[in-house]
Amino acid sequence: MKQVIFALMLLAAFGAFTVTLVRYARYAALGTSDPRPRIDQIGLRLWNVRVYFIGQKKGAERQIGQSASSYHHLFIFWGFLIIQIGALELFINGLWPAFNLGMVLGDAIYGVVRWVIDFSNLIVLVMIGYGFFRRIVLKPRLIPINLDASIVLGAIATLMVTHFGHWAFDALASSETVVPHQPVSSVVAGLFSSMSPTTAAMLHDVCWWAHAVTIFCFLNYLPFSKHIHLLGALPNIATMNLSDRKMDLPKVDLEDEKQWGVGSFEQFSWKSLIDTYACTECARCSNYCPANLTDKPLSPMDLIHDIRYEMLDKGPLLAKIRELESTPDYDWRNQELAALKKQLEEMPAMVGGRIKEETLWACTTCGACQEACPVFIEHPLKIIQMRQNLVLAQEKTPPDLARAFRNIERNSNPWGIGADQRMDWAEGLEVPTIEDKPNPEYILWVGCAGAFDQRIRKQTQAMVKILNAAQVDYAVLGHNESCTGDPARRGGNEMLFQMQAEQNITTLNEAKAKKVITSCPHCLHTLKNDYPQFGGNYEVIHHTQLITHLLESGKLKTQTNGAAKLNVTYHDSCYLGRWNGEYEAPRKALKMLPVVGQMTEPERNKSKGFCCGAGGGRMFMEEHGKRVNVNRTGELVATGATTIAVACPFCNVMMTDGVKSMDKDESIQVLDIAEIVATALGGQSRTATPPVDVAGDTHAEVAPESAS
Ligand code: SF4
Ligand code: SF4
Q1: Contacts with 385 (C-beta within 8 Å, 6 or more apart), sequence order
Q2: Which protein residue has the closest C-alpha to ligand 1 atom 6?
Q3: For the segment 585-636, what is each residue's pLDDT rounded down to a tens digit?
Q4: Out of 94, 483, 664, 674, which could bridge 463 as a Cys pair, Cβ 3.0 to 4.6 Å?
């Protein structure tokens, strides 16, 4: 009788679980095809599974603000995997009471397996205790103790307790106090050694059934809980983006108005939808998010959950609609189809509904969330795709960003300064244009900030001084250069971006450009990673990479010029570092300069660096409340350095503004690395940074359109 009941429960539990799994897979399959290869390079993908899924490399990493690595999840995960061997034995044993794994493995191996399982149960139980302690007492940011967490932690703890119980009471039922090869269960048996065999036999049955029922319930609760990541993490890691382009935005087909960005969940690719099943709710993304840390209405973790809830809410309806659409065209079908479509249409929209506009506009596209995520979820890609829907399909662009877009269209730069002033920065300097010098080795891409912003012009002039000193064969595109379209693409205006890309690619191709140098990581990212989608293929390097090469090869000679040595800290640009993997060139360049004395790293540096707040079009948008750049400047000032070195014009503007907001502009200067190098060549004095002329007091103020 016991076997029959158990068999029915087993069938029901696994049957229901399979139905849920198929349903979830079906919802993800409602997404669009993914433009990237996802099942190539099998060896590398298996390696990633070993390192990041089994080895939990990113999950165990020490986080900012933590004193040690986070191993507790690793222990729970491994322990949980190991005890599945015990669960398998229990399932077979429930159907065939005489069975034990020793019959398959042999007594010696079985003894070791039992010992390992028993010990793993103890480790998991201790870690679950720590899990409760952490949530209730330590209260980590954004990881509360809630009903779901309590159910999950409680269920796992029940499995551990009933494991020890059923083995210990089994021994006691036979008047034994030692469970062979199970030291922890033996200790438990010892605690109850005075118990009568009859009571022990009864308690053994209770524990055995409680263990089985908990497994069956947990299995079916799992897809509806945070533990859904147990199902989603493995496929997500296995199909991660392996290309060097970490922000690989798909090209929007502007002819297809139905798919202008992502407005509803099924417009995401299937891979983006699988992402949402993989979230472990560790909150790392939100804890590294500059928008979230400055109280903006954006939590990348909640955003991923919202997409999942959207899929689970609307997926059943849409799946049914797709199913009916593939059946023959009968009246009953058309009626049902119309009713279902109406029902779906009446549900609130995802973008602008469940996911608020202000959430999407708060993002600086800094990539800190994606970098921190242990299961490789790509948040910024989704945010930009939803912005595309807001801008192109819903025509909802924040006014200040819309103004920047119009300025790019009319004057080739987001500030709306007359395009005829693009070369004013070069007045009085020896700067060859492409007309003066056809076929140069390098095109110097000046960028809009480098050409129009009074502060950043000094950075461009410093770069020219360096190139001339090292006798680099280069030319600028002069008035033919136009905004790369970075703010447009990151801001969701794919139409404007594509226009800019096509125009600039024509200009670069006419100039027969092969190598491009730029001081702006946003230009670098766009030229290097976005333009190839439109046929623009160039070797694009950042000015710090060229400077490092020139210093290492001895083509640039530097000296102290008798000035006091600088006490420097370096602020990583997100678009140079996280998105393009360059952390070392700026540091190497600084360390090679005789004018640099001390170099101190801020706590958040390299891949864990903190955004300046200007990416993703935020440079041109008003910021309310706590400001990201002031927050970051505070971290840099806390290093004790008196020079903040930057490698990006946007970071330069934001840090300069931050230093001013802190009333530190008399004592702390913000300099681009090119400017520091140029002073070491002689002839340029190192003084406190002058105010920013174009952006005014705050980075968000945009020159009036009348300027155009
Ligand atoms: S890209 Fe940066 S600002 Fe945007 S959600 Fe991620 S961490 Fe936050
Ligand atoms: S998205 Fe990634 S980093 Fe954020 S909570 Fe989920 S698993 Fe953690």
Answers
A1: 249, 261, 262, 267, 268
A2: 369
A3: 999 999 999 999 999 999 999 999 999 999 999 999 999 999 999 999 999 9
A4: 674
